[in-house]
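Hey, quick one: can you model this chain's 3D structure?
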Amino acid sequence: MTLLTFPPSVIFSTATSACFLHPRRYTGISSQNFGSISLVSLNHLNNYGNKVCQNLISCCSMPIDNSISSSSQSALQDSLFCSKAYWVSKSIIAWNVDTGDGDCFLYASKTASLVVRNDGQDVKIKLQEDYGGLPSNVIEKFPHIRYYRALNVPLALDVKGLLKCQLAVAIFSADGICRNATGLQLPGVIDELFAYTGPLGAVFSEGGITLCLWAPTAQEVSACIYKDPANGVPLEIVQLGEVNGVWSANGPKSWEGCYYVYEVYVYHQSTLRMEKCTANDPYSRGLSSDGRRTLLVDLDCNALKPEGWDKLAEEKPGLLSFSDISIYELHIRDFSANDQTVPPDLRGSYLAFTLQDSAGVLHLKKLSNAGISHVHLLPSFQFAGVDDDKEKWKSVDTQLLENLPPDSDEQQAQITAIQDEDGYNWGYNPVLWGVPKGSYASDPNGPSRTIEFRKMVQALNRIGIRVILDVVYNHLQGSGPFDTYSVLDKIVPGYYLRMNTDGHIEHSTCMNNTASEHFMVERLIIDDLLGWAVDYKVDGFRFDLMGHIMKHTMVMAKGALEKLSKAMNGVDGSSIYIYGEGWDFGEVAKNSRGINASQFNLFQTGIGSFNDRIRDAMLGGSPFGHPLQQGFITGLLLQPNDHDHGSEAVMEHMLSVLRDHIQVGMAANLRDFVLTNCEGKEVKGSEVTTYDGAPVGYASSPRETINYVSAHDNETLFDIVSLKTPMNISIDERCRINHLATSLIALSQGIPFFHSGDEMLRSKSLDRDSYNSGDWFNRLDFSYNCNNWGVGLPPREKNQKNWPLIKPRLADPSFKPQKRHILSALENLTTVLRIRYSSPLFRLRTANAIQERVRFHNTGSSWMPGVIVMSIEDGHEGQPGLSQLDRTYSLIVVIANVCPSEVTIASPTLRARNLQLHPIQLMSTDEVVKNSIYHTSSGSFTVPARTTSVFVEPRNVTKVEE
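Sure thing. Here's the predicted structure for all 962 residues.
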């Protein structure tokens, strides 16, 4: 008879007895005996000692029908590579199978020896089906398996011991034949039995250092202590002891400055084997180059603190309200890699931000003076894709590339040939979340990365800019027992990463999705955020693919950060802002894995999310649509390109719908903001819908909306405008469209967000995804001489299908802006930012304030196409019941004319007001905007082509009659 055998140790405990089966210890006990009994009393086998019974394990054989083909038998064996059953609590296993008239059993092997072969008899733990189904608490935690069958586990079972073994469940038909078998997913029962809130990582005290590692499924853990960051034999190997899943060992203070790695002996479901995994500490706070070893570093040590570090909280730039935030997104290497005013050894580094007179720092000072309050730094934790050792980097001959044609494919060929061996990557390949990236430090070994990161934060704060970190908790670069970049999956395999219903890792984020719905994953995320906030005094966090993180995790993180205080922690947690990408897709979509941190679910949390509605309405289409699809500012109806957008009537309707989307966005994308839509109906923001029927408005307050038109993803603003606008328009016109886009974002309610270089017409030569496109395609030029347009066709991998559209544009010299255009774009952004901060009316703090004060004109079906008119009213004699917020202005009117010609538009409700062009625009060098006129008697406005004009009514000024 063919059998599925689960050999080595077997122990099944009850209140009074236990039995076990061990290959070297059941000699003399016949198979006939095993055929007649299910338990062997421990009293008869007590000569084997209690040590054998420390890990309670069950093993058995599963008979398989001889009629089953060898291929079917192989498939049954391969089924153990799947984990389709869930051990959801101590007493329940969930499995989506019908046992029919058969029975289900649980098996375990301490040595991971569950195999199909021809011998053995059955000793097994029978599971009883609970026909009431899964309880509500299990369904809440695992909604995607709500309809699975519930199998009850015997209450007397030593579950903690079993979790250190290879586990499987199997179903037998009534005739005793195994019909199905699979492994188990364990996070549910692990959370119930091993959730832990005590110390983890390297804990420093006066008496020494304690290493603490949470690894409840491990059988053994040791720490190898090294003197050096690489090579050499360990100074010592320390065995850690376990208490309820936490392994620890005490060491002397002399370990400080040394390095260590853990060796974890644990079952790994990806190999069906016991593996000795070498891994860094998940709570690492220092590393050797490329993360080979964890550095034992005490971040409280004074030697690691720049002068004045402990008093930095008192020097932070002021922030009265989150509505006062304006964000500038920047990659650390982009900032200085091409800056010739930075010493070569500091280019692309943390320390480049500390140079007070570099071109880049002077540029940041300009932005800070205009109103930019926060710099959002792309990933700066330890990530894969860039070697920490700069000596290993490869580079290209840029002089050669400079001499190539602007539409050549040679530049991208040379860049991509070395793209995995140069010094560039965006950094969305996380290895360890809690340590600064080594490649940005002067020395990736030792504490330099800590000291220099702190100096960067301090330097930015001192020029008036707070610092936001881009955190990537939704996925990890590595997984499995052998991957160099794998950490968490080596320590508690199958726990930290989110699995599909077959027990394989989900990859919807791009790789190795993490599972914040699991207690210790959530804890690690929150601990990490607190570490960055306290140890590095950062001022905010931007969450990559935040929708793949549970809402509970985000709310808990926000609450934990808010509790930080200057007195206790050296930071003011109430001023730390968090926001992220609330996209709802993949396995978490529609709350399939629990309530996730998507745009709609974040209502009333105070957590911000990116507003893609205003971006897509302004530019046209979406990043995933046709690249020539035009939007409100890129020429739809008013200056169409060669793309077929439908009839004129269709385009006019599309334009009016997009205007509604933009107006909701300008009102902070509030769910309940009431406006008149393109059909003349009064509707809420949530009743304005996208092309697929999704609500446009979803926020409860302005702090929950990040308005933007470009970011590091997809084409830059200049590039997408150059792609979507007709080829025959002038560069001057394209530049004014750029101005329009940034001005609408800057003057909207909510929090404005700008991609670095938007203010300099930044180009990536039409690269839609420059994450690994090297310095060449990502260059910033703070001398303002060049915007990086026309440096070759963008890399083939992500752009080749659009090369036919891209090539003629890059080849056309009329597309390339001159220095005067770049300087004009810079002045435009600083002008509209200064206007934003000239009045609190642009930065209203509540939904009620926005509803009371913000109005849109030129609405309904008889609107003038291509014009948005927004007014913001303040309290004054003619407006009873409205409090006064602005001491200078009683009314502000913003008019955006995206038409290619001047327009005059009347608004009867704005007649007889004392409006005049904003003094900041009057003092600017933009001669076009100065032609904007308000006509008092008619309440009409004349606004030049492709211009945003801001009119203000000063207080206590006698009205001027026309």
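One thing worth noting: Residues 1-67, 116-123 have pLDDT under 50 and may be disordered.
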